[in-house]
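Design a sequence for this backbone.
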């Protein structure tokens, strides 16, 4: 590379980084708002709209109908944000909380009244019209009660199993958007009879929702298979709106709005500011570490990592992703993987320099040899992120989105930007080997010979976790310390006589509540009022009375200013099921990829065993330390899974390479040598990621500490399992199942 070209490359990278950074912090509009301030934040970081519905006409609906309605509402409101929450309040109320929204009326107008959808025949049994077209559209000629009693309502919203917008080709092969309906078994029979009658008379069947006719499609054939298409020259937005209307109107229960309000962030501004401070300090420490250890390559990686962070902030806003603590977990993991890719490359470069190659040649070969490990590790994690994105529930989607974005960007900056910067530095005259470091040939550590000790230690840790959970359950405190997100609790609303900030409530009021209830508390302020909602574990009557007395004696409120209601978990059984299914599917796809890339299923099985070990050990820590199992628990576990699988793949990639190059070496020698060669990578990557999370723990608010602490345990455990267990698992599987692999 010529010197002039090197200068141009460095200037371009610098200008792009500075330009994107400027957009992140200052923006390009007249208001000076950057992308960072425009990122959509979740309820925990920014608050949003809270709407409470009440079931119409039923004081005690069945648990099945309530659960079905909550699940379908959850799917509906995730169109606003993947972090939206839906939960039961009392016997017949359902609350919806949507982050990043400040106009409750707009949401209510779009949602309408859930569960009020009907399919109405054009004429009744006497031939009289049920609706006519006026100058302003179709209107009913009878009231709804009459239509329901005379049999003109041929189908209910609950008879529709699914509704979605999709594209199809018409008779002229022109693309058009339609709404596809799938009916339930009962709905299939009803619709077959209704469409047969309507087709014979050349009539339409209208769709009535929340007081108006939203669509009046003509019946072009009798539909007997339970699948229907609604055509109407729709745009995609129109088709999606109609499909969404049918889904929301097809709930098991009919709901009416009870009240709505704008609520504040659950964690407060401190959570954001401390997280940013921790991130800035952590990045500074990582930057110093990389430069001190790797010299010029380290400086190149810091510049590339700076560009990476600037791009992440820009694209989080650009793709309208909602950032919560779960999303922070995905970003932390992707930063760790960005550093990891650079460490792998730099270690390879030093190995090549140790063989006597030139710096230029070492850089070229180092990147080439590191490519497979980086691609395999990142793609394996990316597969998991993609599956979780498409199959997981809302909070998991938020994690998967930020993780996928981070992985793609980290691969780009590590494989291209870092390489361009290093080549530019070389062209500018930094050609001495002392600027890059020369690898030292270390005697292989005999990890494999100690595998029995590692197996016993890990078995003891895992078994201790199950024993601890059993002991906790026997003591009546629950196997794990499940938070409100999993088990529900009590929501106590207090109308104070003065305003409190979320920080004041957290530091002054929360400790008093926890002293009375014996558990943690979630706090939400209500915008424009002095009301505050305190969510705690389920309170018995005596505890509620004690809590009320505490508010009365300490804050001068009256009994009438305090209301309490039992609330359900925000993580429903269906969401738990969807998460488990998504994780299982992700593991299967990772196994398939590893089988294809490594041509040995035992590598895949060993990887899964290693990450399962890490999850179980962290679960044991949750049980022993009684760390709150909240909605960040899933993100924490998924972060550990992604971290573990990536670390293990790096070692397996080196084992595969060494087995292909050293045919005279025994399997034991190859494994020990491969682990030793990648040991610095395992330690350095774990250390840099650990520092980032540790600072979150030190500087963060209590909820962030509950998230960061087990994540630190997972990072240490992931390093241990990849170094001490993964190769041992593969070696043991080779002995148990020799197969046709090279021995």
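Sequence:
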């Amino acid at each position: 590379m010529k010197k002039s070209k090197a200068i141009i490359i460095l200037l371009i990278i610098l200008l792009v980084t500075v330009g994107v950074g400027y957009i992140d912090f200052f923006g390009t509009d007249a208001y000076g708002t950057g992308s960072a301030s425009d990122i959509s934040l979740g309820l925990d970081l920014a608050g949003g709209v809270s709407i409470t519905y009440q079931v119409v006409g039923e004081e005690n609906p069945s648990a099945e109908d309530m659960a079905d309605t909550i699940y379908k509402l959850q799917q509906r409101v995730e169109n606003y944000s993947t972090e939206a929450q839906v939960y039961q309040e009392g016997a017949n109320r359902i609350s919806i909380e949507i982050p990043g929204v400040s106009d409750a009326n707009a949401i209510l107008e779009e949602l309408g009244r859930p569960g009020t959808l009907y399919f109405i025949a054009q004429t009744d049994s006497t031939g009289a019209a049920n609706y006519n077209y006026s100058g302003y559209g179709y209107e009913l000629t009878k009231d709804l009660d009459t239509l329901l009693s005379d049999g003109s309502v041929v189908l209910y919203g609950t008879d529709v199993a699914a509704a979605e917008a999709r594209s199809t080709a018409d008779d002229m092969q022109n693309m058009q958007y339609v709404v596809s309906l799938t009916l339930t078994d009962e709905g299939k029979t009803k619709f077959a009879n209704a469409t047969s009658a309507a087709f014979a008379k050349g009539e339409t069947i209208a769709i009535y929702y929340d007081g108006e006719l939203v669509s009046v499609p003509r019946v072009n054939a009798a539909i007997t298979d339970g699948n229907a298409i609604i055509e109407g020259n729709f745009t995609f937005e129109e088709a999606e709106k109609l499909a969404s209307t049918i889904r929301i109107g097809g709930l098991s229960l009919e709901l009416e709005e009870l009240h709505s309000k704008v609520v504040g962030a659950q964690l407060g501004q401190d959570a954001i500011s401390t997280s940013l401070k921790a991130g800035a300090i952590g990045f500074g420490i990582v930057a110093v570490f990389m430069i001190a250890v790797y010299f010029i390559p380290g400086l190149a990686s810091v510049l590339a990592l700076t560009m990476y962070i600037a791009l992440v902030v820009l694209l989080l806003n650009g793709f309208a992703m909602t950032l919560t603590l779960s999303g922070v977990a995905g970003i932390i993991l992707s930063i760790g993987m960005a550093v990891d890719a650079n460490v792998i490359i730099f270690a390879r470069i030093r190995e090549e320099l140790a063989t006597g190659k030139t710096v230029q040649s070492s850089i070229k070969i180092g990147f080439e040899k590191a490519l497979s490990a980086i691609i395999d590790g990142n793609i394996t994690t990316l597969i998991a992120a993609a599956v979780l994105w498409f199959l997981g529930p809302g909070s998991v989607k938020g994690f998967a989105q930020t993780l996928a974005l981070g992985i793609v960007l980290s691969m780009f900056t590590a494989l291209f930007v870092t390489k361009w910067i290093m080549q530019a530095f070389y062209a500018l005259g930094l050609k001495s080997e002392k600027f890059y470091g020369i690898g030292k040939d270390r005697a292989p550590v005999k990890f494999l010979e100690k595998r029995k000790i590692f197996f016993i230690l890990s078995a003891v840790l895992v078994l201790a976790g199950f024993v601890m959970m059993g002991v906790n359950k026997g003591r009546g405190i629950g196997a794990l310390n499940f938070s409100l997100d999993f088990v529900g609790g009590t929501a106590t609303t207090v109308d104070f006589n003065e305003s409190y900030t979320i920080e004041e409530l957290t530091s002054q009021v929360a400790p008093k509540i926890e002293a009375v209830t014996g558990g943690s508390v979630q706090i939400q302020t209500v915008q424009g009022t002095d009301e505050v909602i305190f969510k705690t574990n389920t309170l018995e009557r005596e505890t509620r009375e004690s809590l009320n007395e505490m508010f009365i004696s300490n804050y001068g409120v009256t009994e009438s200013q305090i209301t309490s209601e039992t609330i359900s978990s925000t993580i429903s059984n269906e969401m738990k099921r969807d998460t488990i299914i998504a994780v299982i599917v992700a593991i299967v796809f990772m196994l398939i990829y590893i089988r294809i890339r490594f041509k040995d299923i035992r590598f895949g099985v060993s990887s899964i065993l290693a990450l399962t070990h890490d999850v179980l050990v962290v679960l044991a820590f949750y049980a022993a330390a009684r760390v709150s199992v909240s909605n960040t628990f899933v993100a924490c576990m998924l972060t550990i899974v992604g971290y573990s699988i990536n670390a293990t793949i790096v070692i397996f990639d080196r084992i595969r390479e060494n087995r292909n190059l050293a045919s005279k070496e025994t399997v034991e020698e190859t494994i020990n040598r491969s682990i030793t060669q990648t040991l610095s990578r395992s330690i350095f990557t774990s250390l840099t990621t650990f520092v980032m999370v540790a600072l979150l723990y030190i500087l963060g608010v209590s909820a962030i500490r509950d998230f960061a602490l087990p994540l630190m345990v997972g990072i240490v455990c992931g390093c241990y399992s990849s170094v001490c267990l993964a190769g041992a698992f593969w070696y043991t599987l080779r002995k148990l199942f020799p197969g046709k692999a090279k021995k």
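The longest helix spans residues 269-318.
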